[in-house]
Amino acid sequence: MKKGWRICIDFDGVINSYTSGYKPGDDSYLPDPPVPGAKEFLVRCLNCFQEVYILSARCQTLSGMIAVKEWMKKHNMPDIPVSYIKYPAEVYIDDRGWRFEGVFPDPDVFINLGTWATNKEKENNDKWLKNMNSK
Questions:
Q1: What's the CA gap between 132 and 126, in Å, rounded?
Q2: What one-character DSSP code corresponds to residue 104?
Q3: Mean pLDDT, consecutive 10-residue segments, the chain of 135 residues?
Q4: In the sheet where 3-10 sits, what is the strand order?
Q5: Which of 32, 33, 47, 93 is the right S-S partner for 9, CB 3.0 to 4.6 Å?
Q6: CATH of the domain at 8
Q7: How far is residue 85's CA from residue 33's CA, in Å, rounded to a whole number?
Q8: Residue 57's closest CA among 13, 110, 108, 5?
Q9: Structurally, how many domains does the chain consist of?
C-alpha cells in the first residue's frame, strides 16, 4: 500500500551524478552518468509514495526540460514527471539541502554546502568566501 505522500527529488547531484557541474547558458549539458542506485531508488519511491516528482532548475527552459527527459530515457530511468516547480511535499531530497532544527546558523555555513559531487564548485566558493571576508 502506498503512503499518501508526495516526494520531490532533485535531479542534479541526486539522480544525475553532476560531476561535470553546470555549463552556464546550456541547460541541456548532461554528460554525467546516474548516481549508483538511482534507478532502484526511484522505482522504490514509486512503490512507496502516492506522487513522485523530479525537480530541476534546468527545466525552466524547454531545452533543459527536454534534456532531462531524454537523459532519463537514455539511462532507463522510470517515467516520472519532471518540473522546475517546487511542489508542496512531505519529503524533499536534494544534494544542497540543510535541515532546519529550530536554530539559525551563521550564513557562511551555506557557502560551501554545495553538492557532494567532485567538481570545482567548492574551490570557486572558497575563493568567493575569502574575498567576502577580507572586505
A1: 10
A2: P
A3: 89 93 89 97 96 96 96 98 94 88 87 66 65 69
A4: 82-83, 49-55, 3-10, 91-93
A5: 93
A6: 3.40.50.1000
A7: 24
A8: 13
A9: 1
